[in-house]
UniProtKB/TrEMBL annotation:
<feature type="domain" description="Chitin-binding type-1">
    <location>
        <begin position="17"/>
        <end position="62"/>
    </location>
</feature>
<keyword id="KW-1015">Disulfide bond</keyword>
<dbReference type="GO" id="GO:0016787">
    <property type="term" value="F:hydrolase activity"/>
</dbReference>
<feature type="domain" description="Chitin-binding type-1">
    <location>
        <begin position="70"/>
        <end position="117"/>
    </location>
</feature>
<dbReference type="InterPro" id="IPR001002">
    <property type="entry name" value="Chitin-bd_1"/>
</dbReference>
<dbReference type="GO" id="GO:0008061">
    <property type="term" value="F:chitin binding"/>
</dbReference>
<feature type="compositionally biased region" description="Polar residues">
    <location>
        <begin position="1"/>
        <end position="18"/>
    </location>
</feature>
<keyword id="KW-0479">Metal-binding</keyword>
<keyword id="KW-0119">Carbohydrate metabolism</keyword>
<feature type="disulfide bond">
    <location>
        <begin position="35"/>
        <end position="49"/>
    </location>
</feature>
<feature type="region of interest" description="Disordered">
    <location>
        <begin position="1"/>
        <end position="22"/>
    </location>
</feature>
<feature type="disulfide bond">
    <location>
        <begin position="89"/>
        <end position="103"/>
    </location>
</feature>
<keyword id="KW-0378">Hydrolase</keyword>
<keyword id="KW-0732">Signal</keyword>
<dbReference type="GO" id="GO:0046872">
    <property type="term" value="F:metal ion binding"/>
</dbReference>
<protein>
    <recommendedName>
        <fullName>Chitin-binding type-1 domain-containing protein</fullName>
    </recommendedName>
</protein>
<keyword id="KW-0170">Cobalt</keyword>
Length: 150
C-alpha cells in the first residue's frame, strides 16, 4: 500500500460501489472520486486524497511535499510525520515521535497515524474517552507509568 504519490492504474477494475483497495478495485475514473482512502473508500476530500491515501488504487495528493524533513510537524508548519521517518505521531508541540508524549494527549491526528486518542482531553478537569489503537505496543505505553507522568 502506497501512502504517497500518484499512480495511473489500480490493481483491478474501477469501483462501482465506492470501495477500493483490498478488494482490488481502483477509484481512478469512478463516480465517487479518484482517491482511495486509508479505510478503502473512494472520494475526493482531503480525508480520501491526503495522509493514508492508497496510491495504488487511485490518485493521491502530492504528499511528498507535506512530509516533515526535520521532525517538525502539525499545525505549526502543515507537515506530516506519516512516512517521514521520525515516528508516527505529531505531538501537541509539533514534533514527530513515537513515545507516549507524542502519541498521547494532544497528538495531532491530522498529521499522525498512531495517536492513542481522537478526542483530546480538556484542561478543565473533565474527562473524555480514550480511543486506543488496535495494537499491543500502544496499550503498553498508554498503561505505563511514564505516560501518566506527562
Amino acid at each position: 500500500m502506497s501512502s504517497f504519490g500518484t499512480c495511473t492504474t489500480g490493481a483491478g477494475s474501477v469501483s462501482t460501489d465506492g470501495s477500493c483497495g483490498k478488494n482490488g478495485k481502483t477509484c481512478k475514473g469512478s463516480t465517487f472520486g479518484d482517491c482511495c482512502s486509508a479505510n478503502g473508500f473512494c472520494g475526493k476530500s482531503s480525508d480520501h486524497c491526503g495522509t493514508g491515501c492508497q496510491g495504488s488504487f487511485g490518485t493521491c495528493n502530492g504528499a511528498a511535499d507535506s512530509l516533515s524533513k526535520d521532525g517538525a510537524c502539525g499545525s505549526r508548519n502543515g507537515k506530516t510525520c506519516v512516512g517521514a521517518g521520525f515516528g508516527t505521531c505529531c505531538s501537541s508541540t509539533g514534533y514527530c515521535g513515537s513515545t507516549g508524549s507524542h502519541c498521547g494527549q494532544g497528538c495531532q491526528t491530522g498529521f499522525s497515524s498512531g495517536c492513542f486518542t481522537r478526542n483530546i482531553p480538556t484542561n478543565d478537569g473533565t474527562c473524555v474517552p480514550w480511543l486506543l489503537r488496535d495494537n499491543e505496543r500502544s496499550l503498553r505505553i498508554w498503561l505505563s507509568a511514564e505516560f501518566w507522568k506527562m
